Amino acid sequence: MPSIFSRIVSGELPAFKVAEDEHHLAFLDITPLVEGHTLVIPKREVDYIFDMPPAELAALHLFAQRVARGVKAAVPCKRVGVAVIGLEVPHAHIHLIPMNNVSDMNFANPKIKVPEQRQNQLAAAIGAQVPAVVSGTAAAPTDPRDTKGGRETMEESEPQAKTTKPAAAANDPALAQLRELTKGLVYMSEGDAPLEPVSFPAPAGGLTDAALAQLAGLPADTQVEKQELTYFLRNHTADNGVLGNPELANRFKALQMYLKQELSGTQVYRFGTGPQVLVLVLGEGEGGKLHGFKTVLTET
User: Fold this and answer.
1) pLDDT of residue 21
2) Whole-angstrom Cα distance, residue 85 to residue 95?
3) What is 4-161's CATH topology?
4) Closest by alpha carbon to 69, among 25, 5, 19, 131?
5) What is the pTM of this model?
């Protein structure tokens, strides 16, 4: 029988998703020790974390490092604690726990109840702060599975698990271009949040509100509001921009031009209501793929 986490991966069960890539998923614990308590899992079901092949174990921790940076940036805390217990669910997972005191990491403490709306806000805020990386750059070492040694380790450790390796993000020209255009840019409202490039296969049933919410990692019934791109970026593309910096304003203008001219039907989608609203900006590229960026709008 699939673990509860595998059922989340398959979409059978909902979750407050924070970050995701081809092999990993991060989502908020529904019985947390503190607000922002996040679980990081491999999508492939493995009962015991130290039974994972070395390359997979290393990749899981690299992904957890990115998520931990998002937690630290979005949730007030001194450190993000790390724990592996492995007794609750037979599916390897790492706990990332915002902490100000050692006692915050005590699993004997009573679990807290966080309202669904607050969980959605936390997931959006953390997800917006998880850094986007390109494998092999100085900012992020190459995923061990993308090295010769890593592949050999996986093949020797688990030959039955070999699959065709998916195309790297670097082979997606639109995503690569968006990484360059958004590098270092932040959306400023009553707070500020980085622009994180995203790319999704187009949903089979079209861009319904439920499909958009699923792309955003939110419940299917989340309220979705559409907005025109030029209006959404108006303060950032003004002559001197929101910070009085013409260079930054020109970069936002270049991003806007790319989204409107190189992609079709580009639209801004806002999810839920304040104080922190997750935003996806998506347009259709070649092959029907959706490209754009995500960020968080703060409205208190």
Assistant:
1) 87
2) 8
3) HIT family, subunit A (3.30.428)
4) 131
5) 0.51
Give me 45's structure tokens.
């079901």
DSSP secondary structure of 15-34: --EEEE-SSEEEEE-SS-SS
Neighbouring-strand partners of residue 19 = 26
Contact call for residues 42 and 34 (beta carbons, < 8 A)? no
Active site positions, annotated: 93
**Distance from C-alpha of 17 to C-alpha of 120, rounded to nearest angstrom:** 9
Structure confidence at residue 132 (pLDDT): 65
Q: What does the alpha-carbon distance between residue 8 and residue 124 come to, in Å, rounded to a whole number?
A: 18
Give residue limits of the domains in the chain.
Answer: 4-161, 172-298
Whether 274 shows a pLDDT value over 80: the answer reads no
Q: Across the strands, what pairs with 295?
A: 279
* CATH topology for the 172-298 domain: Nuia (3.40.1460)
Write the burial class of residue 285 (CB in 10 Å: 0-12 exposed, 13-18 middle, 19+ buried): buried
| Average pLDDT rounded to a whole number, residues 16-32 | 93
Choose among 281, 285, 280: nearest CA to 263: 285
Section 5-25 average pLDDT:
92
Indicate if the pLDDT at residue 166 is higher than 80: no
Region of residue 36 (left: phi > 0; alpha: psi -120 to 50; beta: else): left
Residue linked to tokens 């690569």: 176
